[in-house]
Predict the structure.
Amino acid sequence: MSKVHVYSSKEDRRLASFVLEEDESVLRCLHRHKMMTRSSCFGGGECGDCLMTVLEGAEHLPDQGLREKRTMRILGKPQDGRLACMVVPTQDVSVKVPGF
Ligand code: FES
């Protein structure tokens, strides 16, 4: 049972921790818990709105897929960022997400 720990991007404090459901992306988990980060493409991996910073547990995320790599390159997003809609953690991760 993996958890996502969400930290504020404005302050250095944890805002919440949520248990991820099986095969659930970070974005879907946040939305299920009413943390409504922007997602113009509705989790399609194309808008880049859900770009998050992984503070801990990056090794528990899958490698970037072709769509995520493509979006990051087109939008000029940092290659070490991750799209919350594209990642399903296998163990606990700590992240900062836009808008919180
Ligand atoms: S919601 Fe659009 S890229 Fe993640």
